[in-house]
Write a structure and sequence with these properties.
three-stranded mixed β-sheet; 48% helix; two-stranded antiparallel ribbon; elongated; mainly alpha; single chain
């Protein structure tokens, strides 16, 4: 609700979240008429025109394929400074979600398997020596080579990604998405085209905070999710110039 705009007709003003107006009444009955008019305008301009996900989601967004490895996904996280990415199939349909948590778990499983393989190889060498037929250097080298190849390949995303993830449709309202984030205790939700699984963007807690204006200086600086700061510099400079007119100061 933009209170400043709402009170303009009464000669008042202020900010979108804080405004005031003074009205002289000739009759107390006029107060009811004025209040009814305010309520009707609130319903017409605000309640019936709530912001939809498509208006404030982050788009376009990066995505990963199910045949990528945890090493490749981790490289995406580091290179683009993101903490979660949607997983899509060849038709760009959302089929899962990966975050640092899933990547860390996949790496831990890979390390455990490697340690188990090392112990098994050592046991084979000990058993061979006891039988008087020690393993040759070529056999040991081949076992290490196979292990190194498996480790470099890593495990694919489809084996450990988060499946059956909650998605938001572009026509959903901000309160609906807030409820989804809270109910699922997640920091982001993939956004899909209405009635499909087609990836269109992502909505994060940061997007919602910006809509609520909890942090007026909260801007995107994420290379993976938005334009660079250089492209937004003119807007940033304009905000700085207009700051002196901010009544909160």
């Amino acid at each position: 609700v933009n209170l400043g705009k709402l009170f303009e007709k009464f000669g008042g003003g202020g900010h979108a979240k804080a405004a005031s107006a003074t009205v002289r009444l000739n009759d107390e009955a006029e107060a009811d008429v004025i209040m009814e008019g305010l309520v009707e305008e609130l319903v017409e301009t605000s309640l019936n025109q709530q912001a939809m996900v498509a208006d404030f989601m982050t788009a376009p967004v990066l995505s990963v394929k199910p045949d990528m490895t945890e090493t490749q996904v981790e490289d995406f996280f580091s290179r683009y400074d993101v903490r979660a990415l949607p997983v899509v199939d060849d038709d760009n349909n959302v089929i899962g979600l990966v975050s640092y948590k899933e990547v860390a778990a996949a790496k831990q499983r890979m390390w455990n398997k490697e340690q188990k393989r090392v112990r098994r190889l050592q046991q084979q060498q000990d058993d061979a020596k006891k039988k008087g037929k020690p393993m040759s250097d070529e056999e040991i080298e081949e076992a290490h080579r196979i292990s190194d190849e498996r480790r470099k390949r890593g495990s694919t995303v489809k084996g450990w990604m988060k499946q059956h993830v909650t998605v938001a449709e572009m026509s959903m309202t901000m309160p609906q998405v807030e409820g989804m984030l809270l109910a699922n205790d997640v920091g982001c939700i993939p956004v899909v085209a209405d009635g499909t699984k087609q990836l269109m963007g992502m909505v994060t807690r940061t997007d919602l905070l910006r809509q609520h204006r909890y942090y007026s200086t909260l801007h995107y600086h994420n290379k993976g999710f938005s334009d660079s700061i250089a492209l937004r510099q003119p807007i940033i400079n304009l905000r700085k110039r207009l700051k002196k007119f901010d009544l909160d100061d």
